[in-house]
Amino acid sequence: MDTTRREAELDLVVRKRTVIAKEVVELVLSSRSGEELPPWDAGSHVDLLLDDGLVRQYSLCGRPARDEWRVAVLREHDGRGGSAHVHDRLVEGTSVRVRGPRNNFPLVPSPRYLFIAGGIGITPILPMLASAEEAGAHWRLLYGGRTRLSMAYSEELAEKYGDRVVICPEDASGRLDLDEWLGTPADDVLVYCCGPESLLLAVEERCARWRAGSLRLERFVAKAVPDSTDHSFFEVELARTGGTVTVSPGETILAAVERAGVRPPYSCEQGTCGTCETKVLAGTPEHFDSLLTDEERDEGKTMMICVSRAACPKLVLDL
Ligand code: FES
To answer: Does domain 112-219 fall into CATH 3.40.190.10?
Structure first.
């Protein structure tokens, strides 16, 4: 992951707004002046900076274009207001501030892929299919959802890619048969999965016997983080700014460094978006984020300071 990024913030306009499935709206965003947008690649997402301080991450799901960006948003009835804001207030012609793009879910070159999407988790997978196709890789997509009507882009996927796409609406065909698809590990296949937590956990469980690094997941909802009051005090040395701060059990590193006057970028504060990713110069982090791979965790070169802590008395961070 890139820890030296400086992200653009742009005021974009909602050029087009289409209901593409039950409770799913697609927005096409572009600059008012027609200026080119920053480049992006498959797996990238952007932050929508909504009113009232709401910040929500959505995958870019169209072609990797510079003239417009597309996002598709599911209305979450038990959400915290972000998707309702998008559905109810971002009508055509509305301006919206957008930060990014950022890619925590890059498509690593491979001769073969198995893509698994659940519900709105199809969005980051869409540009991956196009990239895999362009690279001449072999791929299959398993796409599950509650009903066909709730599954965004299912018709166009079936039309475009035929039987390489397995569409599995639960009310008609039952759940995705993960045992069939993941039961036998394959050394030359990378598995990419995005969807609800239950699907991610089921795929993780089945891929546990696969070669390390075979499975790549994207979580937009954080994994459960242990109560931070159970943790102990540790110190963080700020290598660039100078000085050391003490992080107490009920506090995050992010809060502690802000208390010391340092203002690192952050967004979700849940360990899912990658905005606060910080280089670790010394010490061993204890990771509680939902986006680093197992290899990246073991390397310990980087951490999400909004949730992760120290597994040692002192960390030295590039802050
Ligand atoms: Fe999103 Fe830390 S702010 S991962």
So the answer is: no
